[in-house]
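Regression test attached.
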Amino acid sequence: KAGVTQTPRYLIKTRGQQVTLSCSPISGHRSVSWYQQTPGQGLQFLFEYFSETQRNKGNFPGRFSGRQFSNSRSEMNVSTLELGDSALYLCASSGDSWSGNTIYFGEGSWLTVV
Amino acid sequence: AQSVTQPDIHITVSEGASLELRCNYSYGATPYLFWYVQSPGQGLQLLLKYFSGDTLVQGIKGFEAEFKRSQSSFNLRKPSVHWSDAAEYFCAVVPGGYNKLIFGAGTRLAVHP
């Protein structure tokens, strides 16, 4: 069974640009969540989607957005990039609608903003 | 607010020595608890989880963790550490509701030969 797949793995963007990251969850998983990891702030929850609906959102500015498609694949978008957005963005998927299921992570997308 | 504390930022152990990584959580009820490991440049790999039942849980790579409600702790242990265990370890909780993990700051483990 394939794991959580994130693309692209590495990317470099310029301040002010926007970026879209993609995540394909484990087959059959309907919950997809996103996290940002930085040396200073650690691992922080961005948002979670289940069946195309955003169910929970972390404390990030509106420049961070996401969506989920009917096949459970998810994208997150960051607009008007700032240097501080440089981070590892991790996607995670889980099987069911309640939090008792195991949450599996992808390898992440490394974003560098210059 | 829910929180997770990992008191040790860095730990160094000798290969073959035992290991205990500490994790304390703050939550009114019993949360779902996880330990993840992250090697440099990699994503997070699940080591083990606790949802309910037996408070001593076994995970992959010879790790185990014990949930102690009275101490609000979920410490990770391994009886004999291998050089390949060098990585960063994260304790996390799902307080209840949706799949939102709250992570501790992590403990970076170094293993001396």
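Expected vs. actual: identical. Chain A has no helices and eleven strands.
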